[in-house]
Structure formats: C-alpha cells, structure tokens
Amino acid sequence: MTKYVHGYSERETERLYDQAGSVRDLIHHDSLYPAGSLILEVGCGVGAQTVTLASQNPDSDFVSMDIAEDSLQKAKALIEREGIENVEFRPADIFSLPFEDDSFDHAFICYVLEHLEDPVSAVSKILEVVKPGGTVTAIEGDHGSCYFHPETPEAVKAWRCLIEAQSRISGDSLIGRRLYPLLTEGGLKNVSVSPRMVYADKSRPDLIDSFVLKTIIPMVEGVKEQSLKLGLIDEKTWEKGIGDLYAITERDDGTFCYTFFKAVGKKAG
Asked: What residue spans define the domains of the chain?
C-alpha cells in the first residue's frame, strides 16, 4: 500500500467520521446483505464505515481488517462504544490476506483503492477469498468531480494540489470514474456503477457544515506540507486558496458539488 496522503492524525480521524456521517444515507441506503452473510471489510481504517455496515446488517457477521494497528484499535473502540457485537477485527495486508479461498459471502472496500499503486491486483486478491456467486462492493470518490462557485485561481490551484500530491505517491484520486474497468479487469462480472452526487449551497446548511467545512476543505488542508515540499504551490497562494474555499461557504451564492461512485460486481460461479 502506498502512503496515505491524508496522514494519520487525530484531525484526520475526526474528518473521516464527519465524512461518513454526512453522506451516510447517500452512500449506504442500499448497503444491505442477506441475513447470515459473512462479509469481509477490506481496509476498515478507523471504523467510519464499519459502524454503519454492521448496524444496518445486524443479522450478518463482519470481519473488518486493516494494515494499520492504530486504526484498528480506534475502530474497535468505536464499535464497542456503539454496542455493536457482529464485528471481528483483524490486522491484515490486502495483498497477503490471511483467509482461505472462498471464505466470505461478500466483500466491501471503501476509499482504499485510491491509495494503492496496483488496485487491480488488490481486487483480484479480494476476489480470491469471496465465494463463487458472492459480491464485491467498492466505493470511491473522484476529486476531479469537485466543482465550486465562485471559483478563484488560487482555490482551484489549492484543490489541484490534492490530486497531484496523491499522484506523486502512486495513488489515484480520480479513481471513481474508472471503477467499472478496474473491477472488471480484477475479475468481477456483471459490474454496475452508481454515481452518488453531493450538492451543497446556503439552503442546505447541514451539508455545508458536515461535508464542506468538516470534510472537503480539511481534506485539502491535509496535503499542505506535501504540496509545499513538492513545489506544487507557494505558501501565499495556498493560504489565499484555502481562505477562498472557506469564504464560499459564507456566501449566499456559494455552492459545492462532489461525486462518489459505488460499484458492485459478482464473482463467477
């Protein structure tokens, strides 16, 4: 796995929880599995998605894995606080899964493929441990799908730093648009992709707060150090760009738009 571009700070943990909460219904209204299913959650991180998946599917069991032990501990603590009992946590590497082939009825992976140098191989590895006829669900954003009004050159440049910084460490923040070919190449059949668009303006103060102020802009702020170090932007332009992004949220005519992509495919058999 490549370096996680957003870092592992407490602020990033908070941002992940805010993001998950702000788009929970949009992303997960159809994250439902048959009773009795055993589901592998790949790259569960701090449990931001785990809590929703497990609570929405109380009659299914989850094995949630991640390579980062600290993140697993945070995820486990969250699940315990919520009183959820159908999740087991395991430390594991996507490219060396400690499970037998055909072990799981379904698999779920969210906001992980964008950080991998070889996401197609990751999908193939996940598919090995899914039973024939089982499904793999993948969810990714696409940072190139973000539009905001009014634009300033500095705000656009700051946003582009997020895309370029991730590219420099072999990630792909534009991966949402290529989920269909990626999953198909990884071996999945009957892949279907559903775009999930978030739109926020002054008439939707809840989304301005939870998604734009607590998720989108902090996500950009998280790559400041890398962007300056890589020479993608100078500090004066960066500060102006971030300030412009925040200023949009205060304007009566300010708007933000961003698209997530949810894909589901089946293992042959």
From this structure: 10-266
